[in-house]
Amino acid sequence: MPQKIHIRLAAHRVNASVAVNRRVPKIFTPGQVITEQNEFMRGHGTYEEEGFLKSSVAGVKEQVNNLISIRPLKSRYNGEVGDVVVGRITEVQQKRWKVDTNSRLDSVLLLSSVNLPGGELRRRSAEDEHMMRQYLQEGDLISAEVQSVFSDGSLSLHTRSLKYGKLSQGVLIKVFPSLIKRSKTHFHNLYVGASIILGNNGFIWIYPTVTNSEDGVGGFVQNLEEVVSRPERETIARLRNCILALTQSKMMLFDTSILYAFEESQKYSVPELLVPEAMVDVAILTQDRLSMAENS
Amino acid sequence: MKNITSNCERSFIIEALSRGKRIDGREIYDHRKVNFFFGREYGHVEAHLGDTKVLAQISSEVVVPSSERSTEGFLIFNIDISPMASPAYETGRLTKECIELTRIVERCFRESRVVETEGLCIVAGEKENNLLNLCYNFKVWSIRVDVHVLDHCGNYIDCACLAVSAALRHFRRPDIAISGDEVVIYDILDRPPVPLSLHHLPLCITCSFFDSGNLFAVDPSLEEESVMRGRLVLGVNVLKEICAIQHNGGVPLSKDQINRCAEIAFVKVQELTSLMDKGLAVIMLSVPNAAVKSTEARSNSWVRLPPRRVFSVFDGRVFNLALINSSKVVEACQVPCWLGTRTDDTSLGKALEDIRAQSFTEKGKAS
Amino acid sequence: MSKNRELLSKIGLRLDGRRADELRRIRCKLGVFTEPDGSAYLEQGLTKILAAVYGPHQVRGNRSKAQHDAAVVNCQFSMAVFSTGERKRRPRGDRKSTEISIHLRQALTAAIKTELYPWSQIDVYVEVLHADGGIYPACVNAATLALIDAGIPLKEYVCACTASLANNDVPMLDISHQEEIIGGPTLTVAALPMSGKIVLMEMSQRFHVDHLQKVLEKALQGCRDIKHILDEAVKSHIQDVGSSTGWANTT
Fold first, then answer.
1. pTM score, whole prediction
2. Cβ of C168 under 8 Å from any chain B Cβ?
3. Conformational region of residue B43, where left means phi above 0, alpha means psi within -120 to 50, and beta covers everything else
């Protein structure tokens, strides 16, 4: 099969930046003094030395009353209670699963915080412990919600809702967690024919929209036999490439931006979307539409 | 397996240091007792720093030089910290400690040009003449220094440098004669071997830092090493030259602290060098250069040591001396020198006289 | 032959035309890779370095390494086989690279606030693409940028610089490969430039103690200069990224 190959010099690399000139907040870098007064409380990304409050990361200042913190523009996922995450099972242990959520420590999914098949509330029996690997095994992807944060910073997850559970057919994209915009819902059924889970931890799951949602089993079934139709798969692929384009230009990801990018990308075929120029073009057009929507 | 120190021991050491005291009764600027044990062969030295023991053994051979540097000899260090010294160490050459020690010893002795490698050249042919067999005819000395950490009771870096320094000074290589294309290497029994020409003699002084860097002590013992937060190793010589610096992490230091350590190091290195001088003076007393040069000594065949061992008890201590031939020359000897204790040269000289007399009377009886 | 050449000419210029107290040109870029949490590319003169940071993440492999009170910092230094004039046989694992890995770890541990991440591990991978003297300092500077890009809390920048002594009198900054060959003592200092604390110092070849003060001061000055250059680069990078994201999630 003939293939188009693009070879370009490093010098001709496309500048992916779509920065718009706006008010730039003050940027702090490690070691920089934030304030000399000591009536402030030190939050994340700051430390105290010789009476000064100093920054320990490069980023912008956030202040809530007396609490000052510096938020880096990029970091590992810092979990908060209620966040939606997508994760991968790395280990099956006694009464718990270990889940890689792009956090600085592996997260924990307790057997007691999943909905087991056959009944909402029942005691976890010894059989359930033996069956754990049947429910979820190493390498499986799940969507879950952060239940609590342990003192050492690791997360405890739960899937006690029908929308969470094992993920079956779809595409996973990993982006930097800071690019996911926090919003009321992270589950979106896009009108273009696919659904998307924007995990707060930077893992994005795109999957064909499920129409029948009456199987209330807490999401441990994986229907791998069902064939996803070609148009659906193309939509998913296009969505994926659009998200990659936005990521490359460091644009925030949320339902509107992804939809805009999807619409703007129609002039390219799906494979063409992976060409750097096309990616920047889509990003710029999306940026324009977003700022237009904002100003109107 | 790491040496674990309990919390109360830890706080005790730090508390003591903050009052300028150390658990083994030393002052903060004191080294532990330094001893040298010279072996029967040239270049075999065991240095003791308190209970830390490091053995250095130097050997030489004639080799073909590398093609890029055909006029330079080799000075090779082979350093081993075996699990024998402490169970904390693994076997193998590429352990962290071993690399660290190797690099500091190499910095001290090779990169600061203690031994002139050009001086180790025997035959340097012209390259133009033998393009084909390159430097086949070239010959240089390869001086190999094997260092073994035998017992690790803290601060093996200083101890290793003491051992290497003393060994380099103690070492003699066989004499050679060049006539035309031929090189004759004389057995050390036929001709007195020659010492290496050394430019200067660096020694390492380790300063350890405790707590947040405000407490400080020279020559940490094993207990102190497990408590210390960082250390600064300074390789210095008596000419007030710095030959190597190594400061690794732990506590950040200010410029003033480093300068202060350098000042201390120079005082310490003078002390240690003069100790070593004394020790070597005793050893070399047994091989007087003047006597070696005399024709009498040369005509006499040198006897392999020891022909007879004579023990002399002096000052409550045993000197073990191997003695010699009719020319009244002490050929070689083995003297355990307690350099930490005060032994002055004159009394040692007297002891040697005694021993000589004793040996000749014995010889007279035998004949 | 090399001995005839002077490190510093009579009019005070070095072989590459710099003055004694001038750094080589530093160019750098943050966020060059997408897979690692942080990455940076740094050129110091002709020395070119890539650095990537993964973590903090769960300790992998040997679990017993994990510490209850601090993160484990793991550094790996490697030199591309084509980075030197003579093709290297092994990119890493020889004594020199292992030593640099150890020293890199020591310098970075002094700056990273490891106490914030118990049971975790931070991996720093550094690759030399072109070696032209001052490899270790360039690696430290690149690794600092990569750590900042990864959003890992640092006490402050950790910068490194070399200094030498020309004509037994004039301290020289930022030694190039050419100057390394000609000889002269080389003092490498890694420091926290804002507080002036020295976290790592090493020296080879000898010079008189009286010179130590001024060579050290020169090296520290170099670290401070480098810090300013890096700071500019970080700020412009943050500004760039921040404008793209529209400073979202910020107030």
1. 0.83
2. no
3. left
